[in-house]
TrEMBL record:
Gene3D superfamilies: Jelly Rolls. Pfam families: Cupin_7 (PF12973). Residues 9-111, 118-216 form the ChrR-like cupin domain. InterPro entries: ChrR-like_cupin_dom, RmlC-like_jellyroll, RmlC_Cupin_sf. This is Cupin domain-containing protein. It comes from Kiloniella antarctica.
Amino acid sequence: MRLNADFTQTIIVKPENTNWSPSPAKGVERIMLDRIGEEVARATTIVRFAKDKYFPEHQHDGGEEFFVLEGVFSDQYGDFPAGTYVRNPVGTSHSPHTVKGCIIFVKLWQFDQGDDKQFSINTNTAQWISSTNPDQKILPLHHFNDEIVQMEKWASGSFIHRVAPKGGVEILVLEGSLQDNNERYPQRTWLRYPEAEILNFTVTEDCTLLCKSGHLPNTEADD
């Protein structure tokens, strides 16, 4: 399968244009955002787990990065409530489960081999920092080589102007909404921009964004 596999193209997926589709695991549904491969794939996906789901231990051969959007995701390392950011590098393994169900935003097979730090951050209790823009606050989550992952909070009525850096940028709207050229991007909109693309947003509602940059190839990916 190849879905949004050309990383030189701007891709915007709004929630009203998506549908949940079943996965091979009973009680697990997903919204595929980009994908290269079949069940073992380089993939960016929103995944919904029904309650009382337990999975056998498995290894992350390509690494796993996820953000809990709703509910509580658990494994032998702890319970991760909504608002938790987790990185499981190449070679790590776990036995995940969820008691009451959960939804996660997950990225698979997108780790640099040298990026081997396993950790989680509960962003509900983490310390945000002020930026040079008084309308913006930042919560750094991860930085390795050119890759930067952070959360951003923006006040309603503010303007976001930036140029996508080398390696492009992805944005998931966690809360609130943005607008660009009269197009509104509500909660759960996913946006991916290639290197050098100019971004201009008006914040139409106090928003929280999950941003990841510097990690995309500047080409159409091969299988």
